[in-house]
Amino acid sequence: MKIQWLGHSAFHITTDKGIRILIDPFLRDNPACPVEVEEVTADLICITHGHKDHFGDAVELAERNSAMVVCNHEHSVYLSQQGLETTGMNMGGTIEVEGIKITMVNAIHSSDMDFVEGIGAGGSSCGYILELENEQKIYHSGDTGIFGDMKTVIKEIYRPKIALLPIGDRFTMGIREASIAAGWIEPEVIIPMHYNTFPVIEQNPYRFKELVELSTETKVTVLKPGETYQE
Description:
Number of helices: 6
Order of helices and strands: EEEEHHEHEEEEEHEHEHEE
Oligomer: single chain
Largest sheet: 7 strands, mixed
Shape: globular
């Protein structure tokens, strides 16, 4: 299993069986992304919310790859109108696509589509629990502040092995809050995200790593954009 960070909150996951999953595919206009949109392939695309730095190139990638797009109901309606294959869902629900179980979980963040004229209603922001074919679970929190469900629902019910958490502050958790969230969730591995893409979210991920590893058993893997975590 491979998890490649493409900068910001964009990840390309390849499962043991070769299923390719893209999460929040903000690539073309992402100054941190080291690859061209045309190089990226996907069987499945998950979108956490409607901001352009997360929705990104989802339409182009879905069209070119004939990929299924998983998102909230409101975004699913919008994407269906663009002629894409999409599966809408909502908080607490679980679906299975390409042998991957996908559960939509809460996130504390706004979600309106800021890339359409006049800003379009975008329902709720979310995170995902991905349960891969080998029952390994990955938690992508989406953009979020710290919230109590991390300590209860995420940890006690879903028990992810790997967590992808934002540390950029201002629009999401900062390092302090994310380090507390790490202790609440207790995954084996955390990969920090949503930092250093733009000056306004500049952070030192190694400070986050130090705080987490001093206070928990969790290991923090700091990736550079384009690098891959592999198990």
